Amino acid sequence: MQNPPQRRASPWPSRRDEDAMAKLWVKFQRSFRRRPVRFFTLLALYLAAGSLVFLHAGFTGEPRVAGSQRSPGAGEGLGLPYLGATRLSRGFSEVTVGRRRGHWFKGMAKEPAERSRAGDYGAARSRAPKGRGGRDKEEDRARYIGCYVDNTRSRTLRGVSFFDYKKMTVFRCQDNCAERGYLYAGLEFGAECYCGHKVQAPNASESECNMECKGERSSTCGGANRLSIYRLELAQESARRYGSAIFRGCFRQPDNVSIALPASQPMPNMSVDKCVDFCTEKEFPLSALAGTVCRCGFPTTLFPLHEREDEQLCAQRCAGEEFESCGTTEFLLVYQTQVQDNRCMDRRFLPMRSKQLVALASFPGAGNTWARHLIELATGFYTGSYYFDGSLYNKGFKGERDHWRSGRTICIKTHESGQKEIEAFDAAILLIRNPYKALMAEFNRKYGGHIGFAAHAHWRGKEWPEFVANYAPWWATHTLDWLRFGRKVLVVHFEDLKQDLFTQLKRMVGLLGIAACEDRLLCVEGQKDGNFKRSGLRKLEYDPYTPEMRKMISGYIRTVDAALKLRNLSGVPDDYYPRRDGDNSTKEEHNMRSSTLGCTEVRWS
To answer: Quick one: which of 288, 320, 516, 584 has the fewest CB in 10 Å?
Structure first.
């Protein structure tokens, strides 16, 4: 007997199932109509659970640094011995770095606030002399010149000012004014700091400057409407400012001065203010004082501002201001105005997709963001990133949102290390910075943002020692990995880039395959700082490195130095060793000795 055909199951719910579901939904609605609190409670729990999932996804997406388990291999491949207690693998496995996922995925895994740099460009200066007895002594960083009258309606020092009614010290005030290029620093009322380029008030009795500094009881910080004023002996005169203008130096007048500096105006009563105002009004970035003639122009190959002369050659008094120098007909005193040089400000994506990927590789805190700023100005093309940082995108780095393999950017920022990650690039610019500076810069960025500062609690707490233990080995392995696995690697030291920007930037642009335009590079020199330089307002007034930390880091420096020389490259700069073996001097004393080099005092002719 033939079996009846079986009924085929329908993919759709039956009428009975639909009725049951409808009844269940009606009961659910009635329940929440009676007690709406339940609905809002479940909604809040749902949102909280979603937030936790979102945060968890952001953290779990961060892989461990590639190559960390191979750290010994990097050293062995170079034929370099290990350093005993300072092995490169020490603590390295705990370091993490975010992987690039493209801007479309940034909601799931944002780049952690541990990659980039901005730049801690300055070094701590030596402390000011404590007490009144040592103030008359000539110091390499500042010289006390006396107690002066101040007036709230017409300030004696008319530059920037800041107050700290708990921690003001002489050193802190001097450091902030010197950082901004001012010639004088004055302290008042125990807690107020004023900066300026000239003292515009009479002397007062020393007994009237009788208030102790709020942060250093053994020092004097002026009095009521009285300033204790120091003249700053600047090691880098190029940083000196005059109001809104930046002092560039004394230069010999170019041969074709009317072409090099096309705008000019005779000024019988010449002063720096008048010449700077004239050139600003004419929209020129350079103001050159030539005795009684004011000249304006751009930095060009005819007038590149590379060969500075002794300031004594320009030290002729201004006719309209007896305390200022106005240069001569043969030697020009040059200031940079606030007019922006637009010859290097245009930027765009590459017109054709590049087939080669060039990395801009560095350890975090080594100045990668600053280098990107320079490269974009020098080439006119956007730089990309292995990561995504919304704050950098909002500040003009438009290549930040492109996937790093898009081929639309001139080079790609990366902090990655490890063979697989490095071999993904066809060439690389390897930026290396003094580890003592790089570690502090990255620590500040991690806890204070791109141009912020870590709080003192972080420096004094457990965060700083743990950070050094984890990141110091990475500084070494990062360089060793790129030297070992990188193809066509150009090594650039951050310190050399700061000191000789024109030459080093020309090398970097050459590797990128761009014909360097010298006038454009000269324009970059005038716009070099960008918006990523930290101010000196919260510099540490003590050395955060312990002797144990220094011993460990010195071992890594020697290893990197040997690796560079093994490839016939110049080793690390001398200032990577703030304390040499057998030298009992402190870092502050080392910086104090270094800052005396090249300092000159202007005398009127």
So the answer is: 584
